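Figure S4 source data
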Amino acid sequence: MGDIVKKLEIQGDKGKADGIVLFDTGASRSLVRRDFVKKIATLHRSPYPYTFRLGDEKGRLKVDEFVALFIKLKGVMIFHQFLVAKNLAEEIVLGSDAMQLWKIELVPEKEDVRVRKELIDLKLV
């Protein structure tokens, strides 16, 4: 089984672009690379920077910006806030936060994803 990576349409408030998205259940938060996203969306400074421990347990990643993006996936327009990272290997990492919210399931044997549309229940209460 390899990584599940998809080229998807990404839209921000300034425009849209195709982006390479890595679906990563091991990432607690969703991230986007700064050089990719600054062309299509307005970046916002966070008053509270985050520092993430990397998978090697040694490295750290500090982020202090965030951005709102729409991603078109399997016919569903997903809206999510992403933390912006300068030195991210991938253009976009869709983490477990977004996958849980939008009912995205990995299908490893097909190196694909599934969106459980019937489970997405957006309510205004």
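Figure S5 source data
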Amino acid sequence: MSESWKNWSGGVRCNPQRLEAPANEEDIARSVRAAAGLGQIVRVTGAGHSFSPVCRTEGTLLNLAKLGGVAEVDKASREAIIGAGSRIADLGEALLPAGLGMENQGDIDSQTLAGAISTATHGTGLRFGNISTQVAGLRLVLASGEILSLSRSADRDLFRAAAVSVGLFGVISQIRLRAMPAYRLHERTWAASFAECRESVGRLIGENEHFEFFWLPKQDACAMKCLNSTSEPVSAPAAIVEAPPGTVERYLHPERVDWSHRI
């Protein structure tokens, strides 16, 4: 009997014949070879955060939750070896003791690292690429079970294709992530009308390292947010009042400074 699977919202569902959670690279290779022998299509799920049916299959679905954690951090090269199933939310605190941080990330951090790079997930800011641009190397399990180790410098075209492949070339098992010296961000949020937002959005994108807004049409309101790196110390935690869902206040926070991943 097949097991059911759904993404985070429940908008994408499927009943794969085999739902497996490999614990290492060898497990992935065995699962992929077995699926090939049965003529099954293999899909891979991380956090199931994608809105699209990229993980949906009636064949074999691999869940990489057990392939998590930071295996190695090289302070000199500012690179870290990270398991493909690691959640972005867990990386900041793991890198901080080594004095490192991710170059950029989105304000939603529940995705796995492999899923985020494979689907070109991004943060904000004109001067930043998506998360895949932070990857220096990766290990890939092919449909044959063969394992490739790819690097940005040595395997340029194949690496670039595999990094944002939506799983087309194989299963990413491990990632070598380029980090940067840990840094703090200053966050400021405020409310504006849609007209005010539309008039100022170009200027705000240009003036800030990071800018975004959330539009709430029923209120004719936009929750505006800008982030900029700073040398200011971490600010004392402020009390955050829970606002009702569907209101602009829900997206507003007291002005604050903290390490980048916490902001």
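The mean pLDDT is 94. The chain has three domains: 5-63, 70-181, 184-259.
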